[in-house]
Amino acid sequence: MPSQKTATGERALRIAVIGAGASGILSGIKLREAGIADVVIYEKADRPGGTWRENHYPGLSCDVPSHVYRYSFEPNPDWSRLFSPGPEIQNYLEAMVRKYGLDEVIRYDREVVRCEWDGARWEVELSDGEVDHADVVIAATGVLHHPRTPEIEGLERFEGACFHSARWDDSTVLDGKRVGIIGNGSTGVQITTAVSGRASHLSLFQRTAQWVLPQENPVYSEEEKARFRDDRELCQHLYRELNKSFITNFSHAVVDAESEGIAMVETACRAHLDEKVADPELKAKLTPDYRAGCKRLVVAGGFYEALQRSDTELVTEDIESVEATGVRTRDGRLHPLDVLVLATGFQTHQFIRPTKVIGRDGIRLDDAWAESNRTYLSVSVPQFPNFFMLVGPYSPVGNFSLIGVAETQLSYVMQLIEVLRDGRARQVAARADATERFFAEMVEATKGTIWASGCKSWYIDKSGVPASWPWDYDRFESMMATPDLKDFELL
Ligand code: NAP
Question: Any bridge partners for residue 202, and if so which?
Fold first, then answer.
């Protein structure tokens, strides 16, 4: 049925949001605040929370300070630490769902399998065969979402417990067991630090050394929390200051491989290693042969200490195969294990897929993105009208708070939705020429970033380009402040 007008004369839109993680919840809050009542959020799981629901491994925390890893408009005075544990973030997101009454609009256990433009609206098909229709689709489907299982010979033959870090089996006992962890990204480092000392023996299988920026993680005292509770402005001040310091110290640094800032990051990582690890052999194994910040920087405390416990071992020999009783490395050694954790990361360039997205004239997103995930400003794709992405391809992802990124993008998308509501157009999609121009400029700019300085990382897409916003955060905010409608096809 075509959309009607509201009592105030605006076009009444039905908006389908995919995913009830941090960006989907944000969309629900902001769309309803803007007076758009007909919102539905499809969530494939039975709870909200996205990555914070899916990840519940030991040691999970966020390496963005908690007072900035939250909605800008919703301070939380009760964070327990500077960097709070994952379950607190999950609780915060669930509290937001309750506070804003979003359970009314979230439909749990509903996976969107197909979105198809029918010429006027989006047909949204769910896994149970139900079909909905929406004027606008917002894909809030996340980046680090689809686990990457390594192709290691014999993995299926392992007879102990074996799971990906994002599919943690809470019933598996770790205490007193022989635990192996494959992967030393942010996840593997957090798990190693938490499990070392609990396992009878822990083996961390490292393929490539990582730079580790030291992290102090003080607790907030009850007095501090009381002050935050009594003084909302204090929380807001902290949010602004943390944001500002991040932009000054980090966001400029990563996008300029020759910057003083990124050299300072490497100096800090090197000093951390020097201070914590005296054994030259271990230090050599832990020293990367690429520049700090090239891979997504690991920020952690206690990791080097954990590795030097007598019950913990860093294994740097390549893995040859997995056998029924453990992992065999190329030197012929069998590492006997009861539990094998795959902290092997995510398929980071999947975005909304495997959901089939079909735009104008039957064009499929898979085909539009055959060479690379081309978008206009990460939010819109030519020929896919009224389809917007949050934290889509080339969003700023290098150690940024993705909640802040999503807020900036949503405010931009809301301005495009306003164009539909006030009748300036019935369809909005980025123009192909504007997208090509933007994409070419972006690819050129990635060449100067630290991510392109020569390493293998999850930023790099199939065309060999680091898929992250290649300019500083100020430029992200200024470019995303107001849409330039000349770059959009309005029909
Ligand atoms: P990741 O950074 O992609 O690391 C995957 C690890 O698995 C790497 O060490 C990789 O080695 C290793 N690996 C993959 N396949 C392998 C194989 N076949 N054999 C041996 N080793 C293999 O994944 P992640 O640690 O899950 O982190 C992903 C991202 O999630 C992070 O970069 C971060 O953005 C986010 N995260 C954030 C936090 C936080 O505190 N905010 C916490 C966890 C995760 P190579 O390096 O050799 O490829």
Answer: 179, 312
Q: What angle is formed at CA 449 by the lines to CA 434 and CA 406, rounded to 5 degrees?
A: 60
More reliable by pLDDT, 305 or 2: 305
Cβ(152) – ligand 1 distance below 6 Å: yes
Question: From atom 2 of ligand 1, which residue's Cα is the shortest distance away?
Answer: 185
Residue of the nearest CA to atom 3 in ligand 1? 345
- Give the separation between CA 326 and CA 339, rounded to whole angstroms: 9
pLDDT range class, residue 490, cuts 50, 70, 90: very high
* pLDDT score recorded for residue 2: 52
Indicate the pLDDT class of residue 3, thresholds 50, 70 and 90. Answer: low
How many A from CA of 76 to the centre of ligand 1?
29
Q: Whose CA is nearest to atom 33 of ligand 1?
A: 186
The pTM (predicted TM-score) of the whole model is: 0.97
15-146+347-490, CATH topology level: FAD/NAD(P)-binding domain (3.50.50)
**Residue 445 CA: distances (Å) to CA of 118, 201, 294, 379, 435:** 37, 46, 15, 19, 15
